[in-house]
Amino acid sequence: MTREFTKWRDSVVASLAAREDVVGVAGLGSTAATERADEFSDLDLFIIVAPGAHNRYRNELDWLPQSDDVVLHLVEWHGGGKVLFRDGRFIEWGVGTPQEVSTWLAGEGEVLFDRSGEAATALANAQANPFPVNEATEEAALATFLFAINQGMGRLRRGEVVSGGEIIRSEAVAALLRAARAQLSQADASPASRVLDPIDVRRRVESAFPLLADGIATAVAQAPEPAAIALLALATEHFGDRLPMSAVAAITARYDF
Q: Which of 60, 102, 156, 211 is buried deepest, with most CB atoms within 10 A?
């Protein structure tokens, strides 16, 4: 599968490289680390262009090999693009000049085409930009987790099941994982920390925190209120007295857990 994925990736890059207004192309995630690619991997690209060329790579698809097989195309609010092919393959990309790409956020990546060296500089700058929400201390992340549990439960109790469930299953989970990430950072960057995505705190947590990830998956498979109770118990088990227990007591008393 890695060979097929690499062949597909390289055909897209070659098509872009043939266009004079493309300055460079960078692959992100498994698009760069193809040893991780499998049948479910998407292509994730930065398309680095000359000034004024943006819309040719957002609204037009003639740069894509097999563009006739595209069944869905979206230009997102921030200017990035997505396409879905008839066979289920998926490409996601951002389009910007070297100066614009330098201000973006990027994790694992590799320059796949560079006309003049500007793409390498732009990607390196993007990788150096911090993602502040993932820089939280363990203490701040755990506080955010408890606030999310409390707010989500409040919404549930007033009948806002969709909103409350989203806060519990998404915001509380993300905060819990940021606290776990902060633990790794404080422990001299263990090998587990290297598999984590620096931007999306939920990616590859099964490799870094297998027990915690399993507990989270079990918790959020339940209805929102049991999920909140299970997440609170999981946090207490995992973080012990580093979790502000007076706040835990206030939440459990308020909602009669």
A: 156
Same domain, 122 and 237: no
* Domain's final residue, options 128, 151, 172: 128
CA angle 200/45/198 to nearest 5° reads 20
State phi, psi for 202 to the nearest 5 degrees.
-90, -10
Identify the domain containing residue 158 by its residue range. Answer: 132-254
d(Cα 143, Cα 159) in Å, to the nearest integer? 25
**Global pTM?**
0.77
For residues 21 and 117, state if they share a domain: yes
Q: CB atoms < 10 A from the CB of 145, how many? A: 25
Based on the structure, what is the number of domains in the chain? Answer: 2
DSSP state letter for 61: -
Report the pLDDT averaged over residues 209-235. Answer: 96
Single residue among 128, 156, 182 that ends a domain in this structure = 128
Per the model's pLDDT, the better-predicted residue between 163 and 183 turns out to be: 163
DSSP code for 197? -
* 157, 214: one domain: yes
Q: Give residue-wise pLDDT tens across range 173-203.
A: 999 999 999 887 555 555 555 678 878 889 8
Residue 110 pLDDT exceeds 70 = yes
Strands 43-49 and 70-75 come out as: unpaired
